[in-house]
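All the exercises in this workshop are built on plain-text protein records. A record pairs a protein's sequence with a compact description of its fold. Read left to right, the backbone structure tokens trace the chain's path through space. Once this layout is familiar, the rest of the handout is easier to follow. Here is such a record, shown just as it appears in the course material:
>
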Amino acid sequence: MQKNTRLLILTHNYPRYPRDHAGVFISLLCRRLVDESIQPIVLAPHDSGAAEYEENSGVKIYRFRYGSDQEENLAYRGNMQSIVTGSLGGVVRFRRFVRCFRAAATEIIEKEKIDVIAGHWLVPAGIVMKSLARDSALPMILSSHGTDIRLVKKFGGLPYRYFKSLCHRLHRWTFVSSYLKDQILTRDLNLENRLEVLPLPHDESIFYSDADVVKEAALVVAVTRFTEQKRVDVLIEAFALVVKEFPEARLEIYGEGPLQPDIERLIESRGLSLDVRSVSGTPPLAVGSARESKTQGKPWGAPKSVGDGSTDSVGGRPPDSEGRRPSDSVGDGSPDSVGGRPPGLPPMVTIHRPLPQDELRTVYNRASVVVLNSHREGFGLALSEAMLCGTAVVGVRSGGITDIIEHEQRGLLAEPDDAPALASALIRILKDTPLRTKLAAAGHEFAHATYASGPLAARYAQLVQDAAASV
């Protein structure tokens, strides 16, 4: 019987508990690799409450310690870069994190008789791989998902110069979109034969067109984060134009992030009625555009304190028992200032906490259109998931989004940072039912052919087996 290839997967993002959304696509890939004669062995950071070792669906999962429960907050919160670059203490903590990561990897390589090492993201996994490469001849595969390539671009190529020796040693370097691959090729054409576009695997058992869910004709959905890159401010400006022409339209936003308070104030300043069903992730920021605001040091997932006598930043009122903060602009008997909607209709904009994947499926199926207008998005997962659910999509001509949407064929594209153009695309798709139906059907077919987890896992398994055979 053929021995399974033993693959060590290094990642700083992996589910810690059932229905955790952190690194779910890596978890899905690992489960599918088991069926491809690969034994995945995951090494990820520990987090408070998570097991230091467990086995799940044939996948071995090790979690390395790098401090006390209180100190282990560099991973899973989306704030690693801000902590590391924010102070000398952050640098010291990150160096300890990497040392512990590397020590655990070295131990597992010996203990588990590893055949191939695979890392996800240049930072921090690539740092550990570069260190391991000095003492190990094991073949290596690296996968980039977007934030690591933005880091290379942001710092003018200095990170790539640091990683160059590792990059040329890799058996394969995969990217979730051609946009990301091209970013590296502009740095180093000599890598061309090592690079490959391999999208994120999608779970077809979770994301599918659900006939039991009724489409809501005027519902626009955005699954995003409140960060500068996601351009939620541009979406709000666009939606304010949408409701002037399509008064019954509603926007549901699912996400959190440091700019949420700014976005809430922008929504109200445009006269859009607002219902917030998740507490903002940071204290109030100075009034101004979201693009001009600075990220606070607090983790984006950390709740604001309420009920201590302080008032909330929106409307001067604390949340109710369900975490909602109704806008001061509605509920006083006067018609809404945008679109002329009388009282009693649902709020124009609702902000929800992030949802696990199985709940997102229902959201995607309810929507008439799902929109993502990020700047230089590495991939655009919300769009491809919505396509699998049979929902029409709108995006912008930026980053990996153009791999997913072909304009007029399986969705509509607007120019980036152009609120009127984005509004026009949304209005068009909301008003034109035949167009919406045609784009949704074409997108559904494309997503099944391109993002199904089985074929993507089979290709990744072939890369692993080829790497093992190359030694």
Q: What stands out?
A: The chain is about 40% helix and 15% strand. The longest strand covers residues 38-45. The longest helix spans residues 88-111. The radius of gyration is 23 Å.
